[in-house]
């Protein structure tokens, strides 16, 4: 990989490529080692599981000191923290603090300020950067003006996994956020997320004013992710129009407590069709469970953004980062030449 693509994100995190792999529950694996800058998702797991994953990350990254800076982030679901007994929520946050992670990512909560405040009051302020994911201009203004986020992640409707079903397209969302925040006294780093597939996509977001991109689906197509071979094959053959926003998979898994308006984008299959035609939840759950056990593409869950149609092979994560970096550089050079004409 050649020289650093210099942006506010690369400067903030000390990385070469303006790229983040977001928190994705159940798929981290050795992506921690090879994916530029990686977020671990806490999901529904207790503090003990997070502590174990952070210990594994420290081992994989060969950080000898138990208190040395751990150059990864941890993602928290605000609404899930809200539902927990306060001591359990604090245990999760404290686990991340004790591991000295570089960043904390907050999303999907009506009172994220409560948890951001807890972090700032109880963690050394120089330790962890605050990332806040947003799905609207209004949420972004709150993240900038009230939460004083270090990084604001604009997640468009194209994004795979969970997000707001009412979010605008990424380019519209990002431009609206940047326009509103231009005169703010607090200037965070802004990232773009949703439907991004290659280095040219990253370059286009940088051109629009983002400091970097967030890409999840592309990194599911790596041997380091915990996706199965069958799930990766489903991604390889999928077209962009095969993705759908739905709560079908949450009903199938019994994870339906997401805030109003939040759903997930994944590959449409028979689980989705059963849900849409009103099949009983018991039947959907039974078929989903069996399909997951047998790795039946017609039944199991594969989260995917709209960029999936441009992804056609499995590559090691470090090679994906290298390819994305080089594609981004090439596109930026092309754009620069056009401006000079």
From TrEMBL:
Taxonomic superkingdom: Eukaryota
Keywords: Dioxygenase, Flavoprotein, FMN, Oxidoreductase
Protein name: 2-nitropropane dioxygenase
SUPFAM superfamilies in the cross-refs: Inosine monophosphate dehydrogenase (IMPDH) (SSF51412)
GO MF entry, a single one: nitronate monooxygenase activity
Annotated signal sequence range: none
Coiled coil: none
